[in-house]
Design goal:
The protein is α+β, with helices and mostly antiparallel strands. The chain has 2 domains: 60 residues, no CATH class; 162 residues, Jelly Rolls (Sandwich). The chain contains 3 helices and 10 strands, in the order H-H-E-E-H-E-E-E-E-E-E-E-E. The chain has a 6-stranded antiparallel β-sheet with strand order 1-2-3-9-5-6, with no helix packed on it. A hairpin with a 2-residue loop joins strand 1 and strand 2. The chain is elongated, with a radius of gyration of 31 Å. The protein starts with 15 loop residues before the first helix and ends with a strand. Keywords: Membrane, Transmembrane, Transmembrane helix. Pfam families: DUF1214 (PF06742). This is DUF1214 domain-containing protein. InterPro entries: DUF1214, DUF1214_C_sf, UCP009471.
Length: 228
């Protein structure tokens, strides 16, 4: 074979064929070390920012993740126990909230009525039915961030042992700004719709302190009666 017809050695090597045979987009190439380091740092910073932002949004929502839903009510039986998830612990810590221990009772929170509408402190609500068995329970109205508000009579709660009941043990409570006959739960006198509203039902010395025990229990309905 003459020298003119002989192919260069690169044509037969394991690396030379890549320069001619493969399309440019998939040809292997060696990145510059500085560019590789910059890309790694960019991915690292983006991942850290994404983690921080997602954690902040979860903590800011002020709703623990391990909720047990009972109609409009949500219970958090793992709150204050070693089984509580880290986000729930952060939410309670940030809000300076001390959850009830298992031996003390259970707190249930409603942020919506039984029709799924967000609670509004300017509206009037009817809370009726019965609660799980407990030695004592309280029903409290707080704003959307869980804070007590100023009401006309100066109180924001009702206690079960001072409640008017029907002969079958059921009760009916009217939550409103202005005084109502019967069981009246005062709402904030000067609140606006944007302030939000929650009903917090705390059961003390109750057997339903775990998620399994809450299955199938009867909870009060929350009905919106009127809004301005």
């Amino acid at each position: 074979m003459s020298d003119q017809n002989r192919l260069p050695f690169s044509a037969y090597s394991e690396t030379g064929w890549q320069d001619e045979k493969l399309p440019p987009i998939i040809r292997p190439h060696r990145s510059h070390p500085i560019r590789t380091l910059a890309s790694f740092l960019l991915v690292l910073v983006a991942a850290a920012l994404l983690g921080i932002i997602s954690a902040y949004l979860i903590v800011e929502r002020e709703q623990p993740l391990d909720a047990v839903r009972l109609g409009p009510w949500a219970a958090y039986p793992n709150a204050g126990t070693p089984e509580a998830d880290p986000y729930s612990v952060a939410i309670y810590t940030r809000g300076a909230v001390i959850p009830l221990a298992i031996g003390e009772g259970l707190a249930l929170t409603a942020r919506e009525d039984s029709a799924g509408r967000e609670l509004d402190p300017t509206c009037i609500y009817r809370i009726a039915g019965q609660t799980p068995t407990a030695r004592l329970w309280t029903l409290t109205a707080v704003d959307g961030r869980g804070r007590l508000t100023e009401t006309l009579p100066g109180r924001t709660h009702l206690v079960s042992n001072a409640l008017l009941r029907d002969s079958d043990g059921t009760f009916e409570i009217v939550a409103a700004r202005d005084p109502k006959s019967g069981n009246w739960l005062p709402l904030s006198a000067n609140a606006s719709a944007s302030d939000g509203l929650r009903f917090v039902l705390r059961l003390y010395d109750a057997p339903v302190t775990t998620g399994a025990a809450l299955d199938g229990v009867s909870m009060p309905l929350i009905e919106r009666l009127a809004c301005p």
